[in-house]
Each structure stands twice: as C-alpha cells, then as structure tokens.
Amino acid sequence: TVAVGWSSLVHPFISALPAVMMPRIASITDPIEQKNLLTQLIRVGNLITFVVCIIVVILTPLIFPVVFGNIYRKAVPAAMVLSIAAGFFGFSDLLGAAAQSIGKTKMNLTAQMVGLVFTILFLWLLLPSLKIMGAALASMISYAIAFCVLLYLLHKQTAISYRALFLPTRNDITVILSQLETIVSSIRNAQ
Q1: Which end of the chain is more exposed for a tag (fewer CB within 10 A), N or C?
Q2: What whole-number distance in Å separates Cα of residue 19 and Cα of residue 39?
Q3: pLDDT tens profile 161-174
C-alpha cells in the first residue's frame, strides 16, 4: 500500500550507517576500543533514526495527501504509525548489525523470531476489526518488541548500559555535524 511505501522513507537514512561502520568495528582487536566505537555508533544511529522518524511523522499529514492524492487521505494515520514502525525497524537493524559485528549473530535471529510471533498474534487480534490500522499497529508493536529483545540481549552480552546506548554525547553531535558538512560539501562539489 501507499502507507507502507511512505514509511520506507525512514530506512535509507538508517541503513547506510551500519554498512559503513560495522566492518570497521569488526576489524578492531582491542575489546575496549571496539566496545566504545560500537556504543558511539549505536548512539549516533539511534539519534539519527529518532530525528528522521519524527520528521517523517510530522510531515506525513502535510505531504502524504499531496504526493498520493486526497483519495489516500484516510491512509495518513496508518502511514504515521508505519513511519514509527520503520523507526523501530531501523533501531533493530542497527542493533542487529552491531551484534553481528561482534560475532553475536544469533541475537538478531532470536529477536526477529520473537517479533514474528508477536506480528502473527497482533495481526490475528487487530486486523479483523481495525483493518489497515490494525496491520500498521501490529507491525509497530512487533518491531518495537523485537527491538527491545535485541536491546536487552546486546546489553546483557556487552554490559553496555542503556544510558550509554541512548544518551548522545557532545562528541556524537560533533560526529553527526561533521558528516553532514561532508555530505553538503560533496553535493556542492557535484554541482
């Protein structure tokens, strides 16, 4: 549906980060340095994911009907919920890549299997009465649960505090601004 397509706007901003950073983390032999870089990557990725997700959710009621037409206006609430779901999916994608980079591939599988069970359960519960909104809510809830499971497993395996995984530092903001500056400079040079 168009709501699913709209919510996919969140993913490109998120998926690039693990693809670039995870090989670097996997190549680090010092466990402390690896843990520090992994923690920073997760914090930066979570912050970017959160900001992009909020922007997409805020813009959905304004832009969605313009792009897809007034005929799809009723799908705006589902598109908003699916945009939040895409954020949870992005968080999970980031944590799954982090787990993989430290050799803990089963953590992602476990979290996704738990998410699958909850997807089936919530689709069964919500789809008959809520239709498209039920499907959107089932996706959001199951992605959130998979994210929480993966977060718990990563925390348990690495002993990285939840605070360290989510509370951005000044250095994180500097890293993000530096990357944005590089992107803007590349765009200017390409013109």
Answers
A1: C
A2: 16
A3: 999 999 999 998 99
